[in-house]
Write a structure and sequence with these properties.
Layout: E1 2-5, E2 10-13, H1 14-31, H2 36-46, H3 50-74, H4 80-106, H5 110-141, H6 155-158, E3 164-166, E4 171-173, H7 176-192, H8 197-206, H9 212-236, H10 243-264, H11 269-292
Antiparallel strand pairs: 1-2, 3-4
Length: 304
């Protein structure tokens, strides 16, 4: 079933795109990640131009985050004050990311930059997740569960001025720290089409010192607003959002997330992290091949 994508300017198999969205949604439900950091590279591997893949994936992440935010609100798992500061930083970062996107696009380097950043991000994150999951599995087999680290914010965060009390998170820190963190994820959202949760969640835990009870909900709160804002920024500046592509992805991811959440209850967390780490590293390796592998014939001429 071929379908024409007006912005990407090519025809794709609609069932393949829906299946891709379903797979990413399945991973989202199983592993508790937004899935945006896998959607864009998988679309690129399929043949979608990187600019369109990044812009359209952001809109898909927005839709996929709605139900998660409401679920966490119902159990009081969102720090709205912290989320508002993160959203403010993310919106400013989105504007900066749009400028950087347009700058690289005008010089014909945006596709290469997106691929390189993805290889570096996925390679480093996948490597860290692999190390952590292997350590957790070894500790579980030896009957010695890993110690939970003491919750505290980073010394650099403690040195920042103008402290506020974030009552729901139990923190007394400068709002500049989450503002800067939100700015960085906002840039990534526009540039790479990711929600930023795979960076935001560990940063909120290990840099800001937030409790795990409110981390995921607050992260989704920020992702929801920032990805929606980034989609509007893309639509008005880069004009790379393909609504047909985004709708197909969202259709598959909503169904996949529900099934993935049920499957997650049947597996151990460390085994899930190990599987996700391996998948992330495979995607990173495939994108690295796309950058480094030189075809036998760079140009080909076909006689009619």
């Amino acid at each position: 079933m071929d379908l024409y994508l007006p912005i990407a300017n090519l025809s794709v198999n609609a069932l393949v795109i829906v299946a891709l969205g379903f797979g990413v949604g399945l991973l989202s439900g199983m592993f508790g990640v937004g899935g945006g950091f896998l959607t864009t590279p998988l679309l690129i591997v399929y043949g979608i131009p990187p600019t369109v893949a990044a812009a359209s994936a952001a809109s898909q992440v927005t839709g996929a985050s709605v139900s998660g935010v409401f679920a966490h609100f119902r159990r009081n798992g969102v720090d709205v004050q912290m989320g508002a500061v993160l959203v403010a930083g993310g919106m400013i970062g989105s504007l900066a990311g749009a400028w950087l996107f347009a700058f690289l696009q005008a010089r014909g380097q945006i596709d290469t930059v997106i691929a390189i950043v993805y290889v570096l991000l996925l390679g480093s994150i996948g490597g860290l997740m692999l190390y952590e999951s292997v350590q957790a599995i070894r500790a579980a087999r030896a009957g010695k569960p890993m110690r939970a680290g003491k919750r505290r914010h980073h010394p650099l965060v403690a040195a920042l001025p103008l402290r506020w009390r974030f009552y729901r998170s139990g923190l007394y820190i400068s709002p500049l720290a989450p503002l800067i963190l939100g700015f960085f994820t906002g840039v990534l959202t526009v540039l790479l089409g990711v929600g930023g949760g795979f960076i935001l969640v560990p940063a909120m835990i290990y840099l800001l010192g937030m409790g795990t009870a409110v981390v995921v909900g607050t992260s989704l709160f920020q992702i929801l607003f920032v990805t929606a804002w980034a989609t509007m920024v893309h639509a008005t500046t880069t004009k790379a959002v393909d609504i047909v592509l985004a709708a197909l992805l969202l259709l598959g991811s909503v169904a996949g997330a529900q099934i993935g959440a049920r499957l997650a209850l049947r597996a151990r967390p460390e085994q899930l992290r190990l599987a996700l780490a391996l998948m992330v590293l495979v995607v990173a390796f495939r994108m690295l091949l796309g950058l480094a592998w030189r075809p036998d014939e760079i140009y080909s001429v076909e006689l009619m």
